[in-house]
Each structure stands twice: as C-alpha cells, then as structure tokens.
C-alpha cells in the first residue's frame, strides 16, 4: 500500500493509493465518514494492523467523492517530522567510502552513524534553498529510507525486518564545507533547513519483496550522477537495524537513511556542487522519485 500526505486548503491530509487504479488517491478524511481513521502516516503506523486493514478496505471501495487524481495533488513530506532526527548511516557503500577517502587523501573508514535535524525535512517536489554565504559546497546523496513500524531495542538481525513499516526515498543533501568543519562531527553539515527531501510516499514493506535489490539513481539536470543498487550496501537494512538498536530503542515512525552509493559531487574530479536552477531527480526504483530544484536565498 502506498501512503502519502498532500496539501488541501492549507491542511496536511492523508491519502492512500488505490491498488487497481493507478493515479487515483483516496482522501482518507473525506472517505472516513464517522469512522475514526488516522489523519497522518504516523497515525497509521501507531494504529497497527487494524489501521492498515481499514485503509485497505477504504482503498478498494472508497466513498463517493473521496477519490482524487494523484496528478492534481500537491504532495508533502510523508513525515513532517518523523519521530526524532533522521538516523543516518555514513559510508555504507564500499565504492562511496573509497571515493570519499580518495578525495580527502585519507584511509577508507568503516560505516558510521549520524543524524539530521527534524528541520531538514522537505517535500518530494519542494525547492531546496541554498545560501552561498553559509555553504558553497552543497552535495547530493540518494538513499533508501526505512520507516520503522514497531518499537524495539537490541533487535536481532533475523527479526529486524519485522520491525519495518515501509520504505521511502531520501536525498541526504549535505554542506560538505560544514560537514568537515565544526570539529569534524557531521551533524551541522547534514542539518541545514530543508536539506532532506523525502517521499513522495511511504510504500508498505509487503510491496518490496527484496529490499536488497533496488536500483538507486540520482540525476542532476538529467545527467546521471549516481547509479547503484541496494545490494551493494556494506550493512544491509537488517544489519543496520540490529546495529542502531543496540542499547537504543528505535521507535515507530523513526526514519533511517541507509547510506549513499558512489557518485557524489565532492568526490568528482573536479568536484561538483549544486547551483541555483539545478534540478535533482532522486530515485529508488520501485519505491519512488523525488524532484527538487535548487534556489538561492541571498543573505
Ligand atoms: Zn547520507
């Protein structure tokens, strides 16, 4: 099932895609009548199997007047915000770890963990604002996003995917100059406002039969910059969940960005960074595609 948020008369509303009819979305609030149904995707996750079952029923036989055309909707980030900072894995693809080491003349290092502030969350087709007075090296990172569905700590790898609700697309936009400054921690360079486009929806996990065989691509102005596959992850999704949850509870509605493959801008020769007017297309095949334009905000 495909769940999304859209704007209507200034409000965020929950939509669910109709299985049989591509391009049709059921406006859950308009369809629910007197039944109490979730108003957003966090509510669906918290509602568990019962909420999913009721939404499935709604999608298969929607009430009159509740069906909207996807093309007519202004889609918003699925979570704004998710439960807590976006949890991120750095260097989770070997070739990306190697390109980064080459570009900075350092040793290849193992994967690491960092987070992005909740204020980075941005919509699937929203503009991304950059300010050259703050950073002149804004870079792209296509990533598979994992949405947690059940709370847990010390989750075993064999059981990890049972804690997943679904998947989405994340662009972990990064200010490389800030990432390398500020004492060497990554949080600041990863947390500029609006630097985490997400969406365009959350696909429930039953629609992704093998999360480790998804093609990831990122294009800038139509030119392919990243083209890889989730099978190349150093830590696959189940191992990421096991690793993150050691002594640290993962909550339903948390969003995990699972790392980016090779082809980022700073590691190119010469390095490439985003400029005003650039259009990024960030795609995880079978999950979705984000399209974001860079705009400049002068200081
Ligand atoms: Zn990243």
From TrEMBL:
Annotated Fumarylacetoacetase-like C-terminal domain residues: 86-295
GO molecular function: hydrolase activity; isomerase activity; metal ion binding
Record key words, sorted: Hydrolase, Metal-binding
Domain of life: Bacteria
Keyword presence, Oxidoreductase: no
Cleavable signal peptide: none
GO biological process: carboxylic acid metabolic process
Family statement: Belongs to the FAH family.
Protein name, UniProt field: Fumarylacetoacetate hydrolase family protein
